[in-house]
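Field: sequence (string)
Field: structure_tokens (string)

Example rows 1 and 2, in order.
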Amino acid sequence: MKQKIVVLTGAGISAESGLRTFRDSNGLWENYRVQDVATPGAWKKDMDLVLRFYNERRRDVLAAQPNAAHLGLAALETKYEVHIVTQNIDDLHERAGSSNVLHLHGEILTMRSEKDPSIIYEIRSDIQRGDLAPDGAQLRPNIVWFEEEVPMINHAIPLMQKADIFVLVGSSLAVYPAAGLLQFVSPAAPRYVLDKAIPDVQHPNIVPIEKPATEGITDLLQLLM
């Protein structure tokens, strides 16, 4: 049986494909404040602004391409059973060829009813005010906003517990509950940490690779393949 690698990816891996994030710009994302576009309160206050913001993000994702780090993680599947848990809302892991991807914070290329999160549809164009789900509710981006629960965390925890090898790529571990997933990784599992600035991860089995994701994945592949 193949060893199981579980990878937790964050903003740093998609940033090298040109997708900027709140992390990159001191709490701003394309000049928007978090509280103005990524909270339930923002949705209630100014639905049109929130829709416009995520429509722009959707167009950015559709125009972006997977980078060498995405492709490198997909290549690990030739030797390992690989599961990717990502904090990112883009589909670059899937387009790079990764088979098992769990999105903690939702997916920009889907939309859902604002009342019933189980009513989900794919979307490649813009969501407009007045676009309604079958339950009559306004459709919204299928994104987990700040102050909302992260239901997929309960699917990610069992993956962490079963990891033979754990890899962290492009995450500052500043966002919870995603950052808390590391506590569920077996103490015996080696932990490869790839980032241009290594986060504070205290553990005897850590292998730090202090490089941008695209460069760090090259080093990782040399160690694991």
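Row 2 begins here:
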Amino acid sequence: MQVLVRDNNIDQALRVLKKKLQREGVLRELKQRRAYEKPSEKRTREAAEAIRRSRKQARKKAQYEGLLPMPKRKPARPRRPAAAPATAANVSTATPSA
């Protein structure tokens, strides 16, 4: 997994890394491995996950076949324009006026 740091903006790179880790399920797996999980609890959890996956797959198939309405799309967020670099022309110096 790789995250690029642009303009020495480490905060943004950390946000991107956390989002990638969350999508991959790494954080959930780390949390599960902190404590011992009994085999019966593991079977129960895995069965629930399998049910969740199969229901999601059936829902997607029904949406594709037109039996269920498609989910509403989120409106695209407007992109912020890139900040112009500070130059001597952009920087004004305060001069006392008489």
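free_text_note (row 2): The chain has two domains: 1-35, 37-70.
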